[in-house]
């Protein structure tokens, strides 16, 4: 089994806007007996909704690529290169034929599939596959484990 850890760090949210009420990575499960509070205080993945996928604000690089990090896991890999845009945050004419997906628009209010939640995407994103410097800087700043 391979696990893509290129964007699942969700370390300390030092970039703005931080899409979470929580600004530090949980170090243990919550002790709350209220179910919603327990879940939210224990959450590591800070996406507004699990269906949100495009250039997520607050994301960070995860575990570094490693072979056989633990039993049953063949490797941690970075399949999607950190800093590569998932898609443009607005319609950008281009000669590659790449369209615009509303899930990449930070002002998009969502749909049924993501619980009518905001997209959580970063603004000013280039078309998919192009270098997105602001996203790369955020991924480095929010890396977990932290980059040294």
What would you note in describing this structure?
It is a single chain. The chain is low in regular secondary structure. It has a single domain (1-148), classed as 1, 4-beta cellobiohydrolase (TIM Barrel, Alpha-Beta Barrel). The chain is built from two helices and three strands, in the order βαββα. It has helices at residues 35-42, 133-141; strands at residues 2-4, 66-70, 73-77. It has a three-stranded mixed β-sheet, with no helix packed on it. Strand 2 (66-70) and strand 3 (73-77) form a beta hairpin.
Write a brief caption for the model.
This protein has helices at residues 35-42, 133-141, and strands at residues 2-4, 66-70, 73-77.
List the keywords.
TIM Barrel; 9% strand; 2 helices; little secondary structure; 3-stranded mixed beta sheet
Q: What strand line-up does the widest sheet have? A: 1-3-2
Any idea what the radius of gyration is? Answer: 16 Å
- Please state the structural category: little secondary structure
Helix/strand order: EHEEH
Output the CATH homologous superfamily: 1, 4-beta cellobiohydrolase
Keywords: Carbohydrate metabolism, Cellulose degradation, Glycosidase, Hydrolase, Polysaccharide degradation
Organism: Catellatospora bangladeshensis
Enzyme class: hydrolase
Protein name: Glucanase
Topology:
Blueprint (H helix, E strand, L loop, with lengths): L1 E3 L30 H8 L23 E5 L2 E5 L55 H9 L7
Parallel strand pairs: 1-3
Antiparallel strand pairs: 2-3
């Amino acid at each position: 089994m391979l696990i893509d850890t290129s964007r699942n760090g969700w370390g300390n949210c030092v970039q703005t806007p931080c899409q979470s009420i929580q600004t530090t990575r949980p170090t243990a499960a919550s002790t709350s007996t209220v179910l919603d509070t327990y879940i939210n205080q224990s959450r590591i993945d800070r996406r507004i909704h699990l269906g949100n996928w495009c250039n997520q604000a607050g994301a960070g690089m995860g575990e570094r690529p490693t072979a056989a990090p633990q039993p049953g896991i063949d490797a941690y890999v970075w399949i999607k290169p950190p800093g590569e845009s998932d898609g443009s945050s607005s319609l950008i004419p281009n000669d590659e034929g790449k369209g615009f997906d509303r899930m990449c628009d930070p002002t998009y209010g969502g749909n049924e599939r993501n619980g009518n939640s905001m997209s959580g995407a970063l603004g000013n994103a280039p078309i998919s596959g192009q270098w997105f410097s602001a996203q790369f800087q955020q991924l480095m700043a929010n890396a977990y484990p932290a980059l040294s």
